[in-house]
From TrEMBL:
One cellular component term from this protein's GO annotations in UniProt: cytoplasm
Highest classification ranks of the organism: Bacteria, Pseudomonadati, Pseudomonadota, Alphaproteobacteria, Acetobacterales
Ranges where the Sulfatase N-terminal domain occurs: 40-413
Protein name: Alkaline phosphatase family protein
Assigned keywords, A-Z: Hydrolase, Metal-binding
InterPro entries: Alkaline_phosphatase_core_sf, HdlasePehA, Sulfatase_N
CDD domains, alphabetized: PMH (cd16028)
Pfam families, alphabetized: Sulfatase (PF00884)
MF (Gene Ontology): metal ion binding; sulfuric ester hydrolase activity
Amino acid sequence: MACPSPSASSIRHFPVIGTSRFAVKPLPVEQGGANVTQRRNVLLIVVDQWRADFVPALGAGFLKTPNLDRLCREGVTFRNHVTTAVPCGPARASLLTGLYLMNHRAVQNTVPLDSRHMNLGKALRGIGYDPALIGYTTTTPDPRGTTEKDFRFTLLGDLMEGFRSVGAFEPSMDGYFGWLAQKGFDLPENREDIWLPEGEDSVPGATQRPSRIPAELSDTAYFTERALTYLKGKGDKPWFLHLGYWRPHPPFIAPAPFNTMYDPADMPKLVRGPTWQDEAKQHPLHSFYLNGISQGSFFHGAGGAASELDEATIAQMRATYAGMISEVDQALGEVFAYLDETDQWKDTLVIFTSDHGEQLGDHYLLGKIGYHDESFRIPLVIKDPDAPQAAGQIEDCFTESVDVLPTILDWLGGTPPRACDGRSMLPVVRDGVPSDWRDHLFYEYDFRDVHYSKPEGVLGLNMDDSSLCVVQDSKWKYVHFAALPPLLFDLEADPAQLNNLADDPAHAATVAHYAQRALSHRMKHAERTLTHFRSTPHGLEERQP
């Protein structure tokens, strides 16, 4: 039987191929016959390592975040939002390209991002915006466009092509340390010692003592000053600002008064098994990290394994983490106040999110790794000034970091690239969840060797076998590995995800069903930049999906 022909209305014909056909469509000058005169501003706030359950609107009543609370009251807060990749480099690549890890392939920190990919910065330029960035993107450049002697290859990551930096943190935090020196602060020989308590050469573990750097000179203060400088310079011209904050990323030490803002006794209780050795039995990858993560990356000068942290130490660490969250919130209040004073708040789409989460001792881990919810579940709040009716809503549908790029472009009148794996969340914000919205979450992790972590040899894998993907809905979480055993968790009976059911014959059908869903998801989202074009006797045709 012959396949039906597409309708004429679903095809465009091009007599000549121009590069503009493959770019984001320009912002229309007219809409509905009237000139567009309303200023459209976008403030994309991207914090670092802030996990979803540290949001008061989602139940973290112990936190003091009046400005985030305001944003939640005036916008929509998403309860089931994930980054589609960790750690920082892959997470930000997905956020800013709208692509899954399987497509952008910047699979780990230090792995290059292919320069052919469209990203939010490039797309915004295509519709007439100057995409400003404060902070960082942790992007390693495409080596085919430079030489092996390029200084950027000595860094953890640099800035993504397409954005204009107006408050650089990279390379190696030089922008921040230079700002401190300009402010008259006497930098120590080892610049990172500013995050040690005064008079101490190390922090043997979690502490409530303040950092040497005062709050008015913290990295959070630096980013905020850069943001206000940029906004005041723009005047009444439309703008887009990616406002990044490094916190609550470690080292887990806060400046006064945020170091003592929270009582460790008020922190959320740990999610973990009886011992780390018990948890290590769950999976070889989990065992590798339990045996390999040190405390030193989180507390300057500390020794010992992260898995050995006791409950009191973790409670203090969480109190410090909460203090750094409140510091960022106070800084956001300064930015929000300026937008209020200049009457720009009503014209500004505000999106608040994080690159990834943080284990914070759950499952005996620190950092953002593996397959655990704590690493992947992140905050998302959208304040759409065109949808006042949505103010204060908590949305339970499944959303992913790849949805941010198409949402911003949609709000500005642009069109996301065909290759984009996400979809605009504006319909969800304005009209409720569409009937064809996704019915599961999908996220990935690549654990190939990098210079600071080398699991391949321990696990007996090569680099192209060192990956996993997750398909997760409200009932089941399935983790598929390229070359290691799978995992299956019953989220209703085992929300802590301690009991792996993948080897239980009674759940063989469930494993098969979710493995098929994972395969179908990957097939549907395989790279498709040009797959809707085709040549014909009449010239090039473009099919609309």
